Predict the structure.
Amino acid sequence: MLKEEKILQALGFDLPVTCLDVTDSTNLRLKERCRAGDHRVQLLCADSQTAGRGRLGRNFLSPEGTGIYMSLLLPLPEDGLPLTIRAAVAVCRTVEEVCGLSLKIKWVNDLFLQGKKVCGILAEGVENMAVLGIGLNVNMPENGFPGVPVAGALNTDADRETLMGRMAFHVLKTLEERPDSCLSFYRERMLLLGKDITFLQSGQEKNARVMGVDDKGGLMVQTDGGMEILRTGEVTIGSHQVSAFE
Ligand code: BTN
Protein backbone atom coordinates (compact mmCIF):
# COMPACT_ATOMS: atom_id res chain seq x y z
CA MET A 1 0.00 0.00 0.00
CA LEU A 2 1.50 3.33 -1.06
CA LYS A 3 1.44 6.11 1.53
CA GLU A 4 0.46 9.64 0.57
CA GLU A 5 2.32 11.19 3.57
CA LYS A 6 5.62 9.64 2.48
CA ILE A 7 5.21 11.01 -1.04
CA LEU A 8 4.42 14.48 0.33
CA GLN A 9 7.43 14.33 2.62
CA ALA A 10 9.73 13.63 -0.36
CA LEU A 11 7.98 16.30 -2.41
CA GLY A 12 8.64 18.95 0.23
CA PHE A 13 5.54 21.08 -0.35
CA ASP A 14 1.78 20.72 -0.39
CA LEU A 15 0.01 19.20 -3.38
CA PRO A 16 -3.15 17.10 -3.66
CA VAL A 17 -1.86 13.50 -3.76
CA THR A 18 -3.98 10.35 -4.12
CA CYS A 19 -2.68 6.78 -3.94
CA LEU A 20 -4.71 3.86 -5.27
CA ASP A 21 -3.95 0.18 -4.80
CA VAL A 22 -5.11 -0.67 -8.28
CA THR A 23 -6.67 1.23 -11.16
CA ASP A 24 -7.01 0.79 -14.90
CA SER A 25 -4.79 3.75 -15.84
CA THR A 26 -3.74 6.75 -13.74
CA ASN A 27 -3.82 8.90 -16.89
CA LEU A 28 -7.42 7.91 -17.62
CA ARG A 29 -8.51 8.54 -14.00
CA LEU A 30 -6.90 11.97 -13.91
CA LYS A 31 -8.43 12.97 -17.24
CA GLU A 32 -11.79 11.91 -15.88
CA ARG A 33 -11.28 14.05 -12.76
CA CYS A 34 -10.32 17.05 -14.85
CA ARG A 35 -13.39 16.65 -17.09
CA ALA A 36 -15.52 16.46 -13.93
CA GLY A 37 -14.28 19.94 -12.98
CA ASP A 38 -11.28 19.26 -10.71
CA HIS A 39 -8.58 21.40 -12.34
CA ARG A 40 -6.14 21.44 -9.42
CA VAL A 41 -2.52 20.59 -10.15
CA GLN A 42 -2.36 17.17 -8.53
CA LEU A 43 -0.69 13.79 -8.40
CA LEU A 44 -2.34 10.38 -8.76
CA CYS A 45 -0.31 7.23 -8.06
CA ALA A 46 -1.16 3.55 -8.23
CA ASP A 47 0.52 0.41 -6.96
CA SER A 48 -0.58 -1.38 -10.12
CA GLN A 49 -2.56 -0.74 -13.32
CA THR A 50 -4.78 -3.18 -15.15
CA ALA A 51 -4.77 -1.20 -18.41
CA GLY A 52 -1.60 0.91 -18.33
CA ARG A 53 -1.35 2.89 -21.55
CA GLY A 54 1.70 3.68 -23.64
CA ARG A 55 2.20 5.92 -26.63
CA LEU A 56 0.69 5.07 -30.02
CA GLY A 57 -2.00 2.89 -28.43
CA ARG A 58 0.46 0.47 -26.88
CA ASN A 59 0.07 -1.18 -23.45
CA PHE A 60 2.31 -0.44 -20.51
CA LEU A 61 2.76 -3.46 -18.24
CA SER A 62 2.18 -2.28 -14.67
CA PRO A 63 2.56 -5.14 -12.16
CA GLU A 64 2.12 -4.45 -8.46
CA GLY A 65 4.89 -3.67 -6.03
CA THR A 66 7.76 -3.23 -8.48
CA GLY A 67 7.10 -0.06 -10.46
CA ILE A 68 5.97 3.52 -10.33
CA TYR A 69 2.76 4.46 -12.10
CA MET A 70 1.95 8.09 -11.59
CA SER A 71 0.17 10.92 -13.38
CA LEU A 72 0.27 14.65 -12.82
CA LEU A 73 -2.41 17.10 -13.92
CA LEU A 74 -0.53 20.19 -15.07
CA PRO A 75 -0.93 23.50 -16.87
CA LEU A 76 0.38 23.40 -20.44
CA PRO A 77 3.87 24.90 -20.85
CA GLU A 78 3.66 28.22 -22.67
CA ASP A 79 7.13 28.54 -24.12
CA GLY A 80 6.97 25.89 -26.86
CA LEU A 81 9.19 23.29 -25.19
CA PRO A 82 7.04 20.14 -24.95
CA LEU A 83 6.14 18.64 -21.61
CA THR A 84 7.53 15.31 -22.78
CA ILE A 85 11.04 16.78 -23.10
CA ARG A 86 10.78 18.35 -19.64
CA ALA A 87 9.48 15.10 -18.17
CA ALA A 88 12.39 13.09 -19.58
CA VAL A 89 14.77 15.56 -17.93
CA ALA A 90 12.86 15.30 -14.63
CA VAL A 91 13.02 11.48 -14.65
CA CYS A 92 16.79 11.53 -15.24
CA ARG A 93 17.32 14.02 -12.43
CA THR A 94 15.16 12.02 -10.02
CA VAL A 95 16.84 8.70 -10.72
CA GLU A 96 20.28 10.29 -10.51
CA GLU A 97 19.44 11.99 -7.20
CA VAL A 98 17.64 9.09 -5.49
CA CYS A 99 19.43 6.03 -6.94
CA GLY A 100 22.74 7.42 -8.22
CA LEU A 101 22.01 5.93 -11.67
CA SER A 102 22.54 7.74 -14.94
CA LEU A 103 19.84 7.20 -17.59
CA LYS A 104 19.99 7.86 -21.33
CA ILE A 105 17.13 9.47 -23.24
CA LYS A 106 15.93 7.86 -26.44
CA TRP A 107 14.09 10.61 -28.28
CA VAL A 108 11.41 11.54 -27.61
CA ASN A 109 11.02 10.35 -24.07
CA ASP A 110 11.96 6.74 -23.45
CA LEU A 111 14.53 6.33 -20.70
CA PHE A 112 17.17 3.64 -20.95
CA LEU A 113 19.62 2.02 -18.56
CA GLN A 114 22.28 -0.31 -19.96
CA GLY A 115 20.39 -0.86 -23.20
CA LYS A 116 17.02 -1.57 -21.57
CA LYS A 117 13.97 0.68 -21.44
CA VAL A 118 13.19 1.39 -17.80
CA CYS A 119 10.73 4.26 -18.12
CA GLY A 120 8.07 5.54 -20.50
CA ILE A 121 6.17 8.82 -20.53
CA LEU A 122 2.72 9.55 -21.92
CA ALA A 123 1.50 13.16 -22.09
CA GLU A 124 -2.13 13.75 -23.05
CA GLY A 125 -4.21 16.89 -23.39
CA VAL A 126 -7.42 17.31 -21.42
CA GLU A 127 -9.51 20.48 -21.51
CA ASN A 128 -6.84 23.21 -21.35
CA MET A 129 -4.45 21.14 -19.29
CA ALA A 130 -2.11 18.19 -19.66
CA VAL A 131 -1.97 14.82 -17.97
CA LEU A 132 1.59 13.63 -17.70
CA GLY A 133 1.92 9.91 -17.03
CA ILE A 134 5.20 8.34 -15.96
CA GLY A 135 5.82 4.61 -15.71
CA LEU A 136 9.14 3.58 -14.19
CA ASN A 137 10.25 -0.02 -13.66
CA VAL A 138 11.97 0.13 -10.29
CA ASN A 139 12.62 -3.60 -9.84
CA MET A 140 12.13 -6.61 -12.10
CA PRO A 141 8.74 -8.33 -11.52
CA GLU A 142 8.96 -12.04 -10.68
CA ASN A 143 7.82 -12.99 -14.20
CA GLY A 144 9.79 -10.27 -15.97
CA PHE A 145 8.03 -8.36 -18.74
CA PRO A 146 6.62 -11.10 -21.01
CA GLY A 147 6.67 -10.13 -24.67
CA VAL A 148 8.66 -6.94 -24.04
CA PRO A 149 12.32 -7.97 -24.38
CA VAL A 150 13.49 -4.35 -24.40
CA ALA A 151 12.07 -3.68 -20.92
CA GLY A 152 14.41 -3.53 -17.93
CA ALA A 153 14.39 -2.12 -14.42
CA LEU A 154 16.54 0.12 -12.24
CA ASN A 155 17.09 -2.73 -9.76
CA THR A 156 17.46 -0.52 -6.76
CA ASP A 157 16.62 -0.51 -3.05
CA ALA A 158 15.22 3.00 -3.38
CA ASP A 159 11.83 3.58 -1.86
CA ARG A 160 9.01 4.00 -4.41
CA GLU A 161 7.23 6.78 -2.50
CA THR A 162 10.48 8.74 -2.32
CA LEU A 163 10.93 8.31 -6.06
CA MET A 164 7.33 9.44 -6.70
CA GLY A 165 7.65 12.52 -4.52
CA ARG A 166 11.00 13.57 -5.98
CA MET A 167 9.69 12.88 -9.49
CA ALA A 168 6.73 15.22 -8.97
CA PHE A 169 9.11 17.81 -7.50
CA HIS A 170 11.46 17.68 -10.51
CA VAL A 171 8.60 17.73 -13.05
CA LEU A 172 7.09 20.84 -11.44
CA LYS A 173 10.53 22.44 -11.27
CA THR A 174 11.16 21.96 -15.00
CA LEU A 175 7.93 23.89 -15.69
CA GLU A 176 9.61 26.96 -14.21
CA GLU A 177 12.98 26.28 -15.79
CA ARG A 178 14.32 28.15 -18.81
CA PRO A 179 13.85 25.98 -21.93
CA ASP A 180 17.53 26.29 -22.91
CA SER A 181 18.71 24.94 -19.55
CA CYS A 182 16.28 22.02 -19.81
CA LEU A 183 17.33 21.33 -23.39
CA SER A 184 21.04 21.34 -22.65
CA PHE A 185 20.49 18.69 -19.95
CA TYR A 186 18.38 16.68 -22.43
CA ARG A 187 20.97 16.97 -25.22
CA GLU A 188 23.78 15.68 -22.99
CA ARG A 189 21.87 12.44 -22.42
CA MET A 190 20.65 11.70 -25.96
CA LEU A 191 21.07 8.09 -26.98
CA LEU A 192 20.50 8.62 -30.70
CA LEU A 193 23.02 11.42 -31.22
CA GLY A 194 25.29 10.72 -34.20
CA LYS A 195 23.47 7.46 -35.03
CA ASP A 196 22.37 6.52 -38.54
CA ILE A 197 18.65 5.98 -38.65
CA THR A 198 15.80 5.27 -41.05
CA PHE A 199 12.48 7.04 -40.97
CA LEU A 200 9.29 6.96 -42.94
CA GLN A 201 8.09 10.11 -44.64
CA SER A 202 4.93 10.12 -46.76
CA GLY A 203 5.25 6.34 -47.08
CA GLN A 204 8.86 6.62 -48.26
CA GLU A 205 11.82 5.23 -46.32
CA LYS A 206 14.66 7.69 -45.81
CA ASN A 207 18.14 7.36 -44.30
CA ALA A 208 19.59 10.04 -42.09
CA ARG A 209 22.07 10.78 -39.31
CA VAL A 210 20.82 12.24 -36.02
CA MET A 211 22.35 15.67 -35.42
CA GLY A 212 20.45 16.85 -32.36
CA VAL A 213 17.19 18.23 -31.04
CA ASP A 214 15.83 21.66 -31.97
CA ASP A 215 14.38 24.24 -29.58
CA LYS A 216 10.92 22.71 -29.84
CA GLY A 217 12.07 19.15 -29.21
CA GLY A 218 12.07 18.05 -32.88
CA LEU A 219 14.73 15.55 -34.00
CA MET A 220 17.25 17.20 -36.36
CA VAL A 221 18.47 14.73 -38.97
CA GLN A 222 20.91 15.09 -41.86
CA THR A 223 19.64 13.43 -45.06
CA ASP A 224 21.10 13.39 -48.57
CA GLY A 225 18.72 16.24 -49.35
CA GLY A 226 19.77 18.40 -46.38
CA MET A 227 18.76 18.91 -42.76
CA GLU A 228 15.23 17.92 -41.72
CA ILE A 229 13.33 18.19 -38.47
CA LEU A 230 11.22 15.16 -37.54
CA ARG A 231 8.07 15.74 -35.58
CA THR A 232 5.87 12.86 -36.70
CA GLY A 233 6.57 9.30 -37.82
CA GLU A 234 8.80 6.47 -36.66
CA VAL A 235 12.56 6.15 -36.36
CA THR A 236 14.46 2.88 -36.80
CA ILE A 237 18.08 1.77 -36.55
CA GLY A 238 18.53 -1.20 -38.89
CA SER A 239 15.36 -3.25 -38.53
CA HIS A 240 14.87 -2.29 -34.91
CA GLN A 241 12.27 0.35 -34.18
CA VAL A 242 13.77 2.59 -31.56
CA SER A 243 11.41 5.47 -31.30
CA ALA A 244 7.89 6.31 -32.25
CA PHE A 245 6.73 9.88 -32.21
CA GLU A 246 3.39 11.57 -32.53
C1 BTN B 1 5.31 4.54 -23.26
O1 BTN B 1 6.31 3.90 -22.92
O2 BTN B 1 4.86 4.46 -24.44
C2 BTN B 1 4.61 5.42 -22.26
C3 BTN B 1 4.23 4.66 -21.03
C4 BTN B 1 3.55 5.52 -19.99
C5 BTN B 1 3.08 4.71 -18.80
C6 BTN B 1 2.51 5.55 -17.70
S1 BTN B 1 2.24 4.62 -16.23
C7 BTN B 1 1.34 5.93 -15.54
C8 BTN B 1 0.50 6.51 -16.65
N1 BTN B 1 -0.76 5.79 -16.78
C9 BTN B 1 -0.85 5.16 -17.95
O3 BTN B 1 -1.82 4.47 -18.30
N2 BTN B 1 0.24 5.38 -18.67
C10 BTN B 1 1.18 6.24 -17.99
